[in-house]
Specification:
Chain B: InterPro entries: Tscrpt_reg_PadR_C, Tscrpt_reg_PadR_N, WH-like_DNA-bd_sf, WH_DNA-bd_sf. Chain B: Pfam families: PadR, Vir_act_alpha_C. Chain B: This is Transcriptional regulator. Chain A: InterPro entries: AAA+_ATPase, ABC_transporter-like_ATP-bd, ABC_transporter-like_CS, ABC_transpr_LolD-like, MacB-like_ATP-bd, P-loop_NTPase. The complex is a heterodimer of chains A (245) and B (205). Chain A has a domain of 168 residues: P-loop containing nucleotide triphosphate hydrolases (Rossmann fold). The longest helix of chain A is centred in the C-terminal third of the chain and has 16 residues. Helix content of chain A is 34%, strand content 24%. Chain A contains eight helices and ten strands. By secondary structure, chain A is an alpha/beta fold. In chain A, helix 3 packs across helix 4, helix 3 packs parallel to helix 5 and helix 5 runs parallel beside helix 6. Chain B has 205 residues and is mostly helical. Chain B folds into two domains: 86 residues, Winged helix-like DNA-binding domain superfamily/Winged helix DNA-binding domain (Arc Repressor Mutant, subunit A, Orthogonal Bundle), CATH 1.10.10; 101 residues. Chain B is 63% helix and 4% strand. In chain B, helix 6 runs antiparallel to helix 7. Classes of the chains: A alpha/beta (245), B mainly alpha (205). Chains A and B meet through helix 7, strand 10 and helix 8 of A and helix 6 and helix 7 of B.
């Protein structure tokens, strides 16, 4: 399980807006969005194309800066960091899983997973040990020394999730992580994301598939850069079973 | 489908008495169709009258009578397995009717109707997904039946969300005047239509 660094929410977006351009060419990508993701929680973001889903994810991951409002990751206000500080925060606290281009082709699965740790100053041996632990947690140990082209798409995405949550990272940001996979394999990837969140990580999942969003605890809807609705928290499986049976 | 086919399907396996038919039916349909024992015995009486089932001997120590299929009953259930379900006889979908009325009624925020429904359906989908992940980890004799029912509900909920997305995107491409002009039966709406055509495009939201 990922280390618990703070007891508060892992991610807070507080009245965040992102505006590109100005005057007549102004485009509002995100408007006054507020969102909190706690440890153990997976939140899905849905909405039509161009509704601001990826903007929200990029802001949450420190890949872009808000025009106004605050983005707080593990208690750190992202806007207070310079580029170096932001890169360090991303390496230590945030993992990304994208639809493709997830793994570096010339590195094995274990090397891919250990890379962010090595970049953060860890020794190669210690980074590998952590990488193998991460693979063990996802029951993927046998993939450790395989290169991406020796793995199926589903295996690559599982390794990408392992990398996203290696070391002390507690926040995983996933943008259509099942995009190129068949439905069965995609479900396996989401199950692993769900398990990592159940084990203490916080997750934000951008998807256009209702079936995938259904793995989340909450679903947030965006339209024209505005959060227009939210499903609210889920009931427990036990209470649902009691109700259904 | 009626209870009749369900009971015939179960009796095709082996003779059963009423209470067991009831528990088997409920277990195999994932509890989605609860029956009361009275319903089961009434149906058995009708099936016996129609020559589709017959009692096996007398009642047991507890006064229960087991029933089995007759040849006519076996032929009836074999025919049912291979007859497509008649969708024309299914009840009208309230959501479809609601949205059809919403797009042609003045003053209804259709986008909000769509969003409200989508949120509710997604909650349902999420609950079903949780149930499914739980069901897969606890294999028992009826797990497959339970999973099939759950999967059916999952697919139905997913299809509904996709349809709602489609409705929303269709609405997004329609000028608001076209929506209001659809109220052909409403003379006031027809009067409004030309004015609506020149109104701002934000009329729907």
């Amino acid at each position: 399980m990922s280390a618990a660094v703070t007891t508060g929410p892992v991610l807070v977006l507080d009245d965040v807006s992102r505006v590109h351009g100005e005057g007549e060419t102004e485009v509002v990508a995100l408007s006054h969005a507020s969102l909190t993701v706690a440890r153990g929680e997976l939140v899905a973001v849905m909405g039509p194309s161009g509704s601001g889903k990826s903007s929200l994810l990029n802001l949450a991951g420190g890949l872009d800066r808000a025009t106004s409002g605050r983005v707080v990751v593990e208690g750190v206000d992202v806007s207070s960091l310079d580029a170096k500080g932001l890169a360090a925060l991303r390496r230590r606290s945030i993992g990304f899983v994208f639809q493709d281009l997830n793994l570096i082709p010339s590195l094995t699965a274990a090397e891919n997973i250990g890379l962010p740790l090595e970049l953060d100053g860890w020794s190669v041996r210690r980074a590998r040990s952590q990488a193998l632990d991460a693979l063990d947690r996802l029951k993927l140990r046998e993939l450790a020394d395989r290169y991406p082209d020796q793995m199926s798409g589903g295996q690559q995405q599982r390794v990408a999730i392992a990398r996203a949550l290696v070391g002390e990272r507690t926040l995983v940001l996933a943008d259509e992580p099942t995009g190129a996979l068949d439905s069965h394999t995609g479900e396996g990837v989401l199950k692993i994301l769900r398990q990592r969140c159940d084990a203490g990580a916080a997750g934000l999942l951008v998807t256009h598939e209702a079936r995938h969003a259904a793995w989340a605890d909450r679903v947030v809807f965006l339209r024209d850069g505005i959060i227009v609705d939210e499903t609210g928290a889920a009931a427990t499986a036990d209470s649902l079973l009691a109700e259904a049976r | 489908m009626s209870v009749k086919q369900g009971l015939l399907a179960l009796l095709a396996e082996e003779p059963m008495y009423g209470a067991r038919l009831r528990s088997e039916f409920e277990a195999r349909t994932g509890g989605t169709w609860p029956l009361n024992v009275g319903q089961v015995y009434t149906t058995l009486a009708r099936l016996e009258r129609d020559g589709l089932v017959e009692p096996v001997g007398g009642s047991d120590d507890e006064g229960r009578i087991a029933y089995r299929l007759t040849e006519a009953g076996r032929s009836e259930i074999e025919s049912w397995w291979l007859t497509p379900v008649d969708r024309d006889s299914t009840p009208r979908d309230e959501l479809v009717i609601k949205l059809a009325l919403a797009v042609t009624s003045p003053g209804v925020d259709v986008q909000r109707v769509v969003q409200t429904q989508r949120t509710a359906t997604l909650k349902h989908l999420r609950d079903l997904t949780r149930l499914k992940s739980r069901a897969s980890d606890e294999p028992d004799a009826h797990d497959l039946a339970w999973l099939l029912v759950l999967e059916n509900l999952l697919f139905a909920a997913e299809a509904e969300v996709r349809w709602l997305d489609h409705v929303e995107s269709t609405l997004g491409r329609m000028p608001s005047a076209a929506l209001r002009g659809a109220r052909a039966a409403d003379p006031v709406a027809e009067d409004d239509a030309p004015r609506a055509a020149t109104a701002s495009k934000g009329g729907r939201s």
